[in-house]
Amino acid sequence: MRIAQVAPLYESVPPKLYGGTERVVAYLCDALVDLGHEVTLFAAADADTRAVLAPMRDRAIRLDPAPWKSDLAAHMSMLDRLRQAQDRFDIIHFHTELLHFPMFEEVAGRTLTTLHLRMDAKDLGGAYRRWAKFPLVSISNAQRTYMPFANWAGTVYHGLAPDCCRFSPEPRGYLAFLGRMSREKRPDRAIEIAKALGMPLKMAAKIGVDDEIYFRTEIEPLLDHPLIEFVGEIDEAQKSDFLGGAEALLFPIDWPEPFGLVMIEAMACGTPVIAFDCGSAPEVVDHGVTGFVVRDVRGAMEAVRAARRLDRREIRKRFDRRFSAAAMARGYLDLYAERLARQPFAPEASAPSAKAPLVRIA
């Protein structure tokens, strides 16, 4: 099968630092190639992939040192170049939310769009009603809550490469918080839980531009405590040690989380997850096996005490069974086959060659 994967241009594929969508796209591309499919990745040129790379920008936007950048212009240019090459592919798989809808209406049936973000924004419903012919993929069933009317083709949980995070059989006595330093992720709750338990808490987090004021005014004052260590933003190579050494990952969210990639990263290390009952958490965490789903701080404290009794090897086994990149790829292949059963294949003569990356697309 000839598959185009269309990634956002904000982060490299996979990201150098924090980033969820682009990391998932990277693992999906490699798993599809391993399964014998012809995959072309439309992404920034700093991608690391086993797919054929169609470079759409010299580097990902966030780490580009240029003082002024237009993310809209970059994405519109990418979509136009893809549109000119659309007949080379049997399936075009978008990870760009709804940005591509006006440009690909005539081939909507030969596309899938995985939605990676929250769906409760005010204007989304009208747009998805307007472009209802595009089949959509949710990353959890909970993500559909705000748009049950949409053209859902299926749900495929995220998956990670088996070697992305190293299994750690023995923790080292601290709790972990990993994610964005934003109000919806509730780092304040993580700090409250750790202080109440008298346990060290290590916090690794990205501080985005939109979160700067929240961090400086509400979180930074809480960090002046001997139990709390803020280590900043960490890269992929640091995650295994950070998550693997934790007694548990605290995931004290306060928003409709679509998936929560950090939860399965922790599971890959064998680390239990203590997640608040929001969004996808009850679907991702096998309560009492890979962690606990709780409703409040008191419940989280009790879960941390119980987490030491969980079998870390069983947590890793559940990750391998439910959240591997191969399992994710097989889930998408089922949806691709369903699409193609309804749509004609792209012209065979125009198939791209693995020896000729799509660098010449105008």
UniProtKB/TrEMBL annotation:
Domain Glycosyl transferase family: 169-318
One Gene Ontology term of the molecular function aspect: glycosyltransferase activity
Pfam family of the protein (one): Glyco_transf_4
Domain Glycosyltransferase subfamily 4-like N-terminal: 18-130
InterPro entries, per the entry: Glyco_trans_1, Glyco_trans_4-like_N, Glycosyltransferase_grp1
Organism domain of life: Bacteria
Full protein name: Glycosyltransferase family 4 protein
